[in-house]
């Protein structure tokens, strides 16, 4: 019930605020009907609420924890703050190569957390204000349950909706027989509040979350080993991005073992001992379990009300409708990419759909993806392998531009590439990048993919010099048959 207090604060600040105060208002009837009742106030849920409110729909937004959900409190924002602190540590440690004399004295975790929590706190306050100041949104603090195809119950009170949006998010998964104790065997939730820099960590899982934490800890001076069952790190990315990341991690002395399934973990006197396939054992102070996120849908009444599910995920059609009329689902509980901006876009889509605006269906492949480790990995569209599967190997053309030829990347001393995938005589259908700061290039890359641009069309656009965006420009020039600084 923490939210009610903060919502009341918001209401004192802004007289238009209609944040739920029902707990205190004895005169209010025990039933309330809304255009939309949303279960979960994370990225997907709150985006639905904000867009629906703009469209003059009345909304009840039910949240049992903190508005903003995983992304704001336990995901995107805190991890990126840690990654930025890690970058500062690396730049200090490596400053001499730029002629700057500085010494890294140490990492003060309390101060790192205070910086990180300051960022979260400011964004949280802003979000509370935004939601609280909308006359169309009622924020309800408490755990909800779907009790009818058109109603959610919270602490005995029923919220009826002409439409329901399920947005209950995800949780950190583990493996069978692998018990999370929150002390030596931890998830990302625990890692984000760890009060010390451990001496060594084993990271189980070489996906996005695993490599981001491995990157942070290495920069903080930790001995890190990643264990991944699949044959490569960031296995959902283009194979060339994985190879380049593995090369960069080797250079950074981040240990990793790929194609090695986890077998067991035992506690030792001062840490953990992990056994992997083949019998090899590795010891460390901590084990971070980063093997993916499961849908948070158990015991919420979804199945009882007839919502079709698959292994805990809510099944929807491309318009995000579930099998029950007027019940929609958004965010991590819908199979596909588990990313905050996908949740935002799905929330906007559902609100507009309910308002009768017939929005365009979201192309899942057109959702940009960034892994914020050092070096960053960013992509949009199809990988080379997927494109060849879909269009035939002889119809797919590739160009790989090495950042070695990009002035700004040389200044930053980063290695990497921009790889383009196109259909022969057709548009660009995949952009895959690796290198320091390439996450920022994804804005242009996603426009290229989503607007179905041809290499020649991008080639005629001017890219500022010296910038890393030039790498995108040069790659398109080359693919258009008129390379500038490279041989195509
Ligand atoms: C470590 C980490 C790093 C990440 N980094 C990134 C990143 O850099 N970029 C990115 O795009 N994505 C990132 N993600 C993923 C991103 O956080 C999720 O994709 C996003 O938060 C999903 O939004 P959602 O609305 O589906 O769920 P959530 O954000 O999980 O929100 C669901 C909300 O529902 C509430 N809820 C659940 N059950 C109930 C109930 N019964 N009653 C009331 N409320 C309920 C929960 O309290 C929660 O607030 C990261 C995730 C993690 C864990």
Question: What does this protein structure show overall?
Answer:
The chain is an alpha/beta fold and 488 residues long. It has three domains: 197 residues, FAD/NAD(P)-binding domain (3-Layer(bba) Sandwich); 107 residues, FAD/NAD(P)-binding domain, CATH 3.50.50; 105 residues, Enolase-like, domain 1. The chain is built from 14 helices and 24 strands. The strands form six sheets. Strands 1, 2, 3, 4, 5, 6 and 19 form a seven-stranded mixed beta sheet that branches. Strand 23 and strand 24 form a beta hairpin. Helix 2 runs parallel beside helix 9, helix 4 packs antiparallel against helix 5 and helix 4 packs parallel to helix 7. It is globular. The termini are far apart. Bound molecules: flavin-adenine dinucleotide. This is Dihydrolipoyl dehydrogenase. It is found in: Cytoplasm. Belongs to the class-I pyridine nucleotide-disulfide oxidoreductase family. It holds the Pfam family Pyr_redox_2. Its EC number is 1.8.1.4.
């Amino acid at each position: 019930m923490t939210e009610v207090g903060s919502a009341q604060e918001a209401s004192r600040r802004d007289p238009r605020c209609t944040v739920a105060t029902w707990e205190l208002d004895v005169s209010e009837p025990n039933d309330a009907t809304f255009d939309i009742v949303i279960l979960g106030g994370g990225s997907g849920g709150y985006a639905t609420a904000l867009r629906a409110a703009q469209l003059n729909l009345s909304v009840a937004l039910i949240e049992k924890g903190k508005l903003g959900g995983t992304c704001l409190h336990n995901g995107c924002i805190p991890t990126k703050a840690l990654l930025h602190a890690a970058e500062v540590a690396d730049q200090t440690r490596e400053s001499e190569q730029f002629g700057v004399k500085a010494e890294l004295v140490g990492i003060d975790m309390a101060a790192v957390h205070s910086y990180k929590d300051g960022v979260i706190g400011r964004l949280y306050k802003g979000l509370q204000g935004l939601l609280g100041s909308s006359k169309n949104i009622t924020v309800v603090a408490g755990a909800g349950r779907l009790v009818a195809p058109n109603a959610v119950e919270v602490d005995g009170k029923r919220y009826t909706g002409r439409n329901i949006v399920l947005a209950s998010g995800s949780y950190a998964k583990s493996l069978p027989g692998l018990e999370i104790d929150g002390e030596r065997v931890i998830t990302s939730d625990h890692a984000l509040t760890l009060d010390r820099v451990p001496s060594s960590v084993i990271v189980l899982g070489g996906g996005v979350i695993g490599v981001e934490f491995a990157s942070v800890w290495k920069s903080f001076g930790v001995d890190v080993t990643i264990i991944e069952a699949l044959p490569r790190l960031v296995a959902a990315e283009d194979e060339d991005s994985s190879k380049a990341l593995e090369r960069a991690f080797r250079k950074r002395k981040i240990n990793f073992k790929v194609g090695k399934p986890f077998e067991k973990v035992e506690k030792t006197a001062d840490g953990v001992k992990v056994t992997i396939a083949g019998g090899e054992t590795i010891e460390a102070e901590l084990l971070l379990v980063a093997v993916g996120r499961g849908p948070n849908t158990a015991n919420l009444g979804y199945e009882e009300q007839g919502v079709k599910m698959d292994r805990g995920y809510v099944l929807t059609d491309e318009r995000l409708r579930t099998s029950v009329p007027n019940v929609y689902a958004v965010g991590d509980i819908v199979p596909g990419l588990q990313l905050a901006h996908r949740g935002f876009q799905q929330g906007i889509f559902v609100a507009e759909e309910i308002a009768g605006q017939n929005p365009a269906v979201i192309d899942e492949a057109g959702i940009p993806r960034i892994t914020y480790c050092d070096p960053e990995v960013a992509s949009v569209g199809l990988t080379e392998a997927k494109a060849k599967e879909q269009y035939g190997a002889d119809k797919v053309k590739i160009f790989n531009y090495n950042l070695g030829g990009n002035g700004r990347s040389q200044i930053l001393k980063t290695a990497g590439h921009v790889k383009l995938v196109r259909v022969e005589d057709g548009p660009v259908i995949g952009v895959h990048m690796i290198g320091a700061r390439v996450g920022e290039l994804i804005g242009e890359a996603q426009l290229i993919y989503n607007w179905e641009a041809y290499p020649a069309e991008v080639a005629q656009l001017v890219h500022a010099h010296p910038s890393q965006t030039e790498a995108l420009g040069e790659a398109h020039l080359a693919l258009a048959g008129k390379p500038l600084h490279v041989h195509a």
